[in-house]
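Hi all, long-time lurker, first post. I run a small reading group and we've been trying to get comfortable going from sequence to structure in the token notation. Rather than ask abstract questions, I figured I'd post a concrete chain and ask someone more experienced to write out its structure so we can walk through it together at our next meeting. Sequence below, copied exactly:
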Amino acid sequence: MPMRSDLLPIGRRVRRARTAFTLIELLVVIAIIAILIGLLLPAVQKVREAAARMSCQNNIKQLALATHNYHDANQVFPYASAYCADPGLAGCMSTTSGPMQGTNYTIYHALLAYVEQGNIYSLVSPAGYGGGPFDRTVKTFICPSDPSHQNGKCSTPYGGANAWAGTSYGANFLAFGNGATGSPDYYNKMTSFSDGTSNTMMFSEVFITCGNSGDLSILNGSLWADANGGWRPFVCAGPYKSGVANWESCLKFQSNPRWMNNCDSGRSQSAHTGGVNVALADGSVRFVNSSITDITWANVADPRDGNPLGSDW
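-- Answer (accepted) --
Happy to help. Here is the structure in token form:
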């Protein structure tokens, strides 16, 4: 019969294998893991934001190239928008002679076919409210960093906006409309930008849903198919976007505002820390730092003011 190990002399006792961590060892391991996660999380978030920012830049670049391709095909840029979205309402349709005359579209209807969205463009008709397929989301129109939408649609139920697809990029009204008269259905050409294409903003980032009330039920936004005031997908429109008399034409953008609490729908907005992505009329894309002055931003937005840009550009 084998001898029990506890009866063996001390020097000959068999050591039993340990089958678990002690409590102290377990706590040490958990603490080390927590420290590592704490160190890695900011790095992961930075990588994620860098990827999202790059995607935003790629999208806005596609919009700039699409407008150039449209210009090549039509010898004019598309207009900013019609006067309103309802085809049955007198005065809604564009009356200006040009390729979009007689429509209730925005600039984004015209660009659909140039951003590989021919399937949606085939559904567009001036007989439809907002041109028809206003509920169709377009990936190119949405910045991954934009926190204000629900699967590409506006978050607020105000005016039924949550049934509409949005865009995270606002077209510059001063480049695609008539800033002097407020006419949104005005056709500009490449030669219209007397300040130079590299000094003129075409598109900048915006939030799909935006407001400062903190009440989700009464916010505004940027809807790619909506020509109605307050929802129009453009920036630098002064009172023609906000409806407020004597509103300055292009107030400086907001960097990372809270979209329900301190978001100004009359401005550009960016979810990125420290600046905003813009597409220029020469087709290039630039990340504009938040340190830019109000006057330099306003000068970049206006393609005809003749003002030199500051050193902060």
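A couple of things your group might point at:
The longest strand covers residues 275-280.
The chain has one domain: 22-301.
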